[in-house]
Each structure stands twice: as structure tokens, then as C-alpha cells.
Amino acid sequence: MIIGCYLPYLVLKGGRTALLLIPAALSLAFFAWLLTLHPTAAGRVYAAYGAVYVSVALVWLRLVDGVPLTFRDLVGAVLILAGMAVLMDKAI
């Protein structure tokens, strides 16, 4: 999913070719399709995915963009993942 957001960023801010919007759209469509495969309500799965997305975005920030994570970044990621655990416990 992050690629579906990163490629448009490259087009808009990085001056890259608009052809990158094609794999971006395919990536987002694939993600939406995957949500429909889970037996739990898609909204709950999407909420849980949001926690993973935020955490992966922070990893991306550190590894790709080279920005050091702050204590608040780490605490926020832990809180979000804990919230996801609470949501998904009900679904299991």
C-alpha cells in the first residue's frame, strides 16, 4: 500500500513521469481487493491495517528518508499497535 502513496508523491513532488500513477493505482486496487477477502468486517481490518501502515511509514521515514525517529514517534507507534491488538482480539 505504501507504494500506492509513494509513487504519486514522486510524480507530484519529484517530477517523475505520470506513468508511475498506473502501478500506484494497481497497488491501491489490489489492497482494496485484499480487504474483501478477510472474513472479519472490512472496516475492522482496515483500521488494523492503519496501525501497520503508520508503523511502516515510520520505518520508511528512518530507512529511506534518513530522518531519525523521535521518542514521540516510537511511543505513538506502540500505542497504535496496542490499539490494533485490542481491535483484532475481538475479531479472532
| Number of separate helices | 4
Tally of structural domains: 2
Radius of gyration: 15 Å
What's the helix-strand series? Answer: HHHH
Counting helices, strands and paired strands, the structural category is mainly alpha
Shape field: flat
Helix amount = over 70%
Proportion of β residues?
under 5%
- Low-pLDDT windows of residues: none
**Cα-to-Cα separation, first versus last residue:** 24 Å
Q: How many E-type strands? A: 0
Mean pLDDT across the residues is: 87
Largest sheet, strands/sense/barrel: none
Summarize the structure.
By secondary structure, the protein is mainly alpha-helical. The protein is 79% helix and 0% strand.
Descriptive terms for the model:
92 residues, flat
